[in-house]
Amino acid sequence: MESLDSPTPLSPPHPVVRWVLDASGALLGLERWLIAGLMTLLTVLVLLNVVTRYSGMPLYWVDEASVYAVVWLTFVGASAMTRLRMDFAVTMLTDKLGPRSARVAKVMATAGVLVFALALLAMCWIWMDPIGIARKGFDAKEYAAESFNFLYTEHTQTLEWPMWVLQLIMPIFALCMSLHALANLLEDLRLAPQRKHPAFDAANPEAVN
User: Fold this and answer.
1) How far are the Cα atoms of 78, 85, 187, 199 from residue 204, in angstroms, in the given order?
2) Helix, strand or coil for residue 146?
3) How far is CA 53 from CA 6, 7, 47, 118, in A?
4) pLDDT tens for each residue of 1-31
């Protein structure tokens, strides 16, 4: 591990470090397309809702579909923002610290994000309990009767979709956020140079006015 005082790594990144950064970059590229797709879907649903209501033939499932599109868009966007380092930060303390102390604080903050993401992933594993439902032969009613976990028996009100399918965004978000936070931490520890993401113009502070 290089010293926090060193401006750049003294040697090329370890293959494992490079693999983590490459995997995070590939995931970020996928998230970019998902964000664009979900925004397009949300726009279509809103316009469809307006047209059908004014024509006197409202489609009630559109409202529910719009809500879940927003939920998925929020979590996918939050994961991407983690890698782009666009999350909120309070710098009242770090602005008064020296360069080394500020870097230490930055590492601690990034590590905190990673710990949170891993804790969320662990809670999602307990909540969804894939091993438990598998032991019951994926019989949702039998699993719910024994565990009192009704996740796999619930359906949405109008779409009649299984709730667990829609709520998969939670463990997906936790996993993606963990990978991005790990990549950020490796960069903050000076194990690899910080990568740029030219596909995301908003990641450049000068592009946000």
Assistant:
1) 17, 10, 17, 10
2) helix
3) 62, 59, 10, 43
4) 444 544 554 567 788 989 999 999 999 999 9
Share of the chain above pLDDT 70, in %: 89
Query: Kindly report the CA angle at 5 between 110 and 205, in degrees rounded to 5?
Result: 50
What local confidence, expressed as pLDDT, does residue 184 receive? 94
Angle of the 169-188 helix axis to the 15-54 helix axis, nearest 10: 140
Other beta carbons within 10 Å of 108: 10
Query: Three-state DSSP class for 177?
Result: helix
CB-based contacts of 104, cutoff 8 Å, min separation 6: 4
The Cα–Cα gap between 109 and 125 comes to 25
Give this prediction's pTM.
Answer: 0.85
**204 token code pair:** 């450049």
User: What was the pLDDT predicted at 11?
Assistant: 67
Burial class (CB in 10 A: 0-12, 13-18, 19+), 186: buried
Give strand pairing partners of 155. 162
What is the spatial distance between Cα 44 and Cα 160, in angstroms, rounded to a whole number?
21
Q: Flag whether pLDDT at 45 surpasses 90.
A: yes
